[in-house]
Specification:
There is one protein chain. The chain is mostly helical. It has one domain. It has 4 helices and no strands. It is elongated.
């Protein structure tokens, strides 16, 4: 384990980094590489083309919303159809 003692050169390193490093060294978590094409966070941090956006949306489990018709419009159209017949 590297010495996480504070040095002038490491001022910018956050305490969270040291915590994660210790968890990895203790075998509590496993860090794996994720290629750039599969980065799920891209949908939250970048402007993506429609196809790529839909792929990332599917990866994180978000479903596309269908357009909902307000109930009063639905009732109005049903009653109009009944009057026409």
């Amino acid at each position: 384990m590297k010495n996480p003692v504070f040095h002038g050169r490491s001022k910018h390193i956050d305490i969270r980094y040291h915590f994660i490093r210790e968890c990895v060294e203790n075998g509590e978590i496993i860090v794996t590489h994720v290629c750039g094409k599969s980065q799920k966070a891209d949908i939250l941090t970048k402007s993506l083309a429609r196809v790529k956006h839909e792929e990332m949306r599917d990866l994180i489990g978000v479903k596309k919303l269908v357009k909902l018709v307000p109930v009063f419009q639905l009732c109005f159209s049903i009653s109009r159809e009944a009057n026409v017949r």
